[in-house]
Amino acid sequence: MPGPVFLDADRVTLRPVEEEDLEFLQARVNDPTIWRSIGRSRPLNGEQEREFFENVICGDDTVDLLIVADSTPIGTIGLFEFDWEARTAEIGYWIAPDHHEQGYGTEATERVVRYAFDQLGLHRISAHVFEFNEPSQRLLEALGFTREGVHRDSEFVDGEYQDVYWYGLLEDEWRERAD
């Protein structure tokens, strides 16, 4: 699944999602570890993954990248919900379970945040995380995101309602940390 590198970091590269990546994406998004953490409660078949690829990934309203480590796809990261007037977007990501706890998500997220502020001119990036997803909360907080609020019992996962924590990072906060 080679492809052109769009952004690179120390141990990961970020490249556009290509049609040949669909099998990897469908297999991983059906993994309970992944679908629980992204709030997807129904299975995704190949046709649905292709439709998502054609309608969302191939559109102009998002930035969707494959996270690759040592030439192996390990996850995805993207920016979406752009508001160009307010210069804001939301960031989302997932890493395949066999690559958790190795810092790949943090490195990819840091690189996309830098791209969002430096190249896209964003002022604010938001993210939302389920209350049970402590690794993702730690990732965001390590990069300077602030927990801004809680949407109580707003998602139903594994037979119970879950709180969703909302995080935000402002460009000037990011720049202060980088100095």
From TrEMBL:
Pfam families: Acetyltransf_3 (PF13302). It comes from the Archaea. One of its GO terms (molecular function) is protein-N-terminal-alanine acetyltransferase activity. Residues 12-171 form the N-acetyltransferase domain. GO terms for cellular component: cytoplasm. Keywords: Transferase. InterPro entries: Acyl_CoA_acyltransferase, GNAT_dom, Ribosomal_N-acetyltransferase. The keyword Transferase applies. This is GNAT family N-acetyltransferase.
